[in-house]
Amino acid sequence: MGKRIISQARGHGSLTYRVRSKAFIYEIKYPLQSFSGEGEIVKFIHSGGHSAPLAKIKLGEIIFFNPSANGMYEGQKISIGKDNGMGSIVKLKDIPTKATVYNIEANPGDGGKFIRSAGSFATITKKSKNDVIILMPSKREKVFSGDCRASIGVIAGNGRKDKPVMKAGRMFYIKKAKNKLWPRTSAVKMNVIDHPFGSGRGKNLTHGNLGKIPKRNAPPGARVGSIRARRTGKRKAN
User: Fold this and answer.
1) pTM of whole model > 0.70?
2) Out of 4, 87, 219, 226, which residue is the most buried by the measure of CB atoms under 10 Å away?
3) Which residues have CB under 8 Å from 2's CB, separation 6+?
4) Is 107 inside a domain boundary?
5) Per-residue pLDDT reduced to its tens digit, 195-208
């Protein structure tokens, strides 16, 4: 009896596709816009679900988490609502141009959506009446409302990929923390019983083996390979 192939098994529940619940227990989110003042970095936290170290910030009785910036330290005062330099959480319209920012809100008050991975940052390039144009890491410019908030600085953790992963086991746990399926095995390298492409059958279509184009009426689980072409050859001019 054969085994279910990957596309059939996916979505049906398995330890392979289940992430640890404690990997994402820390939520990155700004406090409500009505809160302002001066917070303090209590400590830095390693989170398996985030690439950058998180700063635990206490503002009165409120505690929230934000990606830490280069140069932050425990006990540092973080200004919320006022530009006091690195780490401050300020509205975009109050931040000077050419400043580097991260964790930018998509809409005012949503808590931060853009630029949250280690070593990343965006640059404020232009300002209009109530809009701010920001140069994203992709080198594209994006328009934000001036009332959206952002943190000033560059996220810490740059260069984390420079150190090579020496063991497969370490890479396995890196991927597992982010619910990534790893390692991915090539279908051709499987046994015949494990996959329609197993052992490379279908490479030589002259022997009548199973090709890599499934039947048009094949069920979703067996529809593995190239999409069947509706027509072949080049279109010729009339």
Assistant:
1) no
2) 87
3) 193, 194
4) yes
5) 777 887 666 554 44
